[in-house]
Design a protein that fits this description.
Layout: E1 2-3, E2 6-9, E3 15-18, H1 28-31, H2 48-51, H3 54-57, E4 61-65, H4 112-141, E5 144-152, E6 167-170, H5 179-190, E7 197-199, H6 207-212, E8 219-227, H7 242-261
Parallel strand pairs: 3-4, 3-5, 5-8, 6-7
Antiparallel strand pairs: 1-2, 2-4, 6-8
Helix pairs in contact: 5-7
């Protein structure tokens, strides 16, 4: 399904993979209000769609946005409440880079009315498509699993202290999925020695994981925040590092296979 703001490719398994931060397009009328640095969309979850291309050969569906997170962050609630209270956060319509500097020229940040308009134009269609596909999967399979795939620079002092673990699995402290599935995915991470890992650490899951993860309704959601260093060069010009990518792909495949194969008790 091709929509002006996203592309949905349905699959034949109970699993759907969401890539909410891989879009890079910025509307022309917005470009003139952003500082030049913003046009390179440095805070994109770079190259995740090609990295995870193997999921389609496994019958897994995907949903991929067209527009950059600087337009609207699809992994923030429409009410624009902070995901992680007490620490620095970026907003529903971000006004700062992950490094903390302003995205907009002075006086050019979006008003509340503009933010509401962006929600209706860009945010809501993506979530309507996501919800509809999850409902379809539940009707076909009896349950649905949503895997929200992310990546990030490993050191970002404005957002978190120190260096992140390589692989950060989030289940909102176990509330967004079955304990059995959480345990199975944890075992995949614990069973490898090449990458540091944590479950429900700094990144417990954003709005998508929190909103769609409803185990009592046979809807399970898991987020993986993966550091760029696992598969790409962390400084511009950004590019996939084939050696690094080859190292992490078996772990990603094992996580995806676990979610595809898992069935509720």
């Amino acid at each position: 399904m091709s929509h002006p703001v996203f592309t949905l490719t349905p699959g034949s398994t109970p699993l759907l993979v969401s890539f909410p931060h891989v879009g890079t397009e910025i509307p022309a009328d917005l470009q003139t209000r952003l500082v030049p640095r913003a046009l390179a969309t440095e805070d994109t979850d770079w190259f995740l769609e090609p990295l995870y291309s193997f999921v389609r050969t496994m019958g897994v569906g995907t949903i991929v946005p067209r527009y950059a997170r600087y337009v609207v962050d699809l992994n923030r609630p429409p009410e624009n409440v902070p995901m992680y209270p007490g620490v620095n956060n970026t907003e529903l319509c971000p006004t700062r880079f992950f490094s903390g500097e302003p995205l907009y020229y002075e006086g050019m940040a979006p008003s509340e009315a503009e933010i509401s308009g962006r929600v209706e134009t860009y945010w809501r269609p993506y979530h309507d498509g996501l919800q509809t596909e999850l409902q379809r999967l539940r009707s076909v399979h009896g349950h649905a699993v949503l895997f929200d795939a992310h990546s990030i620079r490993s050191v970002l002092p404005w957002l978190f202290d120190g260096q992140l673990p390589d692989l950060n699995l989030g289940t909102v402290n176990g509330s967004s999925t079955s304990p059995a599935l959480r345990e199975a995915l944890s075992k995949v991470l614990q069973g490898q020695q090449d990458f540091t890992q944590v479950v429900d650490g700094r990144f417990k899951g954003g709005h998508i994981t929190r909103h769609y993860g409803r185990p009592a309704e046979n809807a399970h959601a898991i987020q993986l925040e993966m550091c760029w260093r696992c598969y790409m060069v962390e400084e511009p010009p950004y590019a996939i590092d084939p050696t690094r990518a080859a190292g992490v792909l078996p772990v990603l495949r094992a996580l995806v296979q676990t979610m595809v194969s898992w069935r509720p008790a």
